[in-house]
Specification:
Blueprint: E1 2-7, H1 15-29, E2 33-38, H2 65-73, E3 77-83, H3 91-98, H4 104-109, E4 113-119, H5 129-142, E5 145-152, H6 158-162, H7 166-175
Parallel strand pairs: 1-2, 1-3, 3-4, 4-5
This protein binds flavin mononucleotide.
Flavin mononucleotide binds near residues 11, 85, 86 and 155.
């Protein structure tokens, strides 16, 4: 299976990318081909809502989303990896999600497998409620098949993350595919 991992943190070697790299290790060991796109260090502009695409056509904007669109549409599975920012996706990831608009028809027709990886500082029982809910609603609307969520509570720094048990959970998810 072709798996695309979309990272979206400004920290190249931060917590969410650490958990995502464990997922990647497991998935590769199971024989899958993994491509990483770092939306945290790419040029993806906000959707202009010009509607020239009609939700099913070319986007008027020429930026790194052209490459990412092709990567997404040629993958079997997409993993969204993000730090938790005010109980939601990082803005770097939200920019990418909003740009799905121009190919929503094609993307939702793929019934793509997806997973969510999150790193957060807090570890309250409600820390991940809203991002998990948003992700589930995205899956429902986009016809994604959710393969799993790694909701890394108490992963506020790399050292916290290393001792949290979440990298191991992500590895197991990748390995199980
Ligand atoms: C703008 C901003 C918003 C944040 N919002 C939250 C939050 O709502 N809840 C939380 O637990 N941590 C929050 N954090 C902490 C990060 O989620 C946490 O440090 C995470 O480990 C960062 O992951 P990264 O290294 O992959 O970027 C926030 C950090 C920033 C910079």
């Amino acid at each position: 299976m072709k798996i695309l991992v979309i990272e979206s943190s400004p920290h190249k070697n931060g917590s969410s990318n650490l958990i995502a790299s464990s997922f990647t290790k497991g998935a590769k060991e199971s024989g899958h081909e993994v491509t990483i796109f770092d939306a945290g260090h790419s040029k993806v502009n906000p959707c202009l809502a010009c509607d020239r695409c009609g939700m099913d056509g070319a986007c008027v904007q020429k930026d790194d989303m052209e490459k990412l669109r092709n990567l997404i549409l040629s993958s079997d599975m997409m993993v969204l990896a993000t730090p938790l920012y005010y109980f939601g996706f990082s803005s770097q990831l939200k920019l990418v999600i909003d740009r799905w608009y121009s190919f929503t028809t094609a993307l939702s027709a793929k019934h793509m497998k997806t997973a969510l990886i999150v790193a957060a500082w807090d570890s309250n029982d409600w820390t991940m409620e809203d991002i998990a809910h948003h992700y589930r609603t995205l899956c429902r609307y986009m016809n994604f098949q959710d393969i799993g969520m790694i909701l890394g509570k108490g992963c506020g720094s790399v050292s916290m993350t290393k001792n949290s048990g979440f990298p191991e959970k992500a590895y197991e998810l990748g390995r199980s595919l």
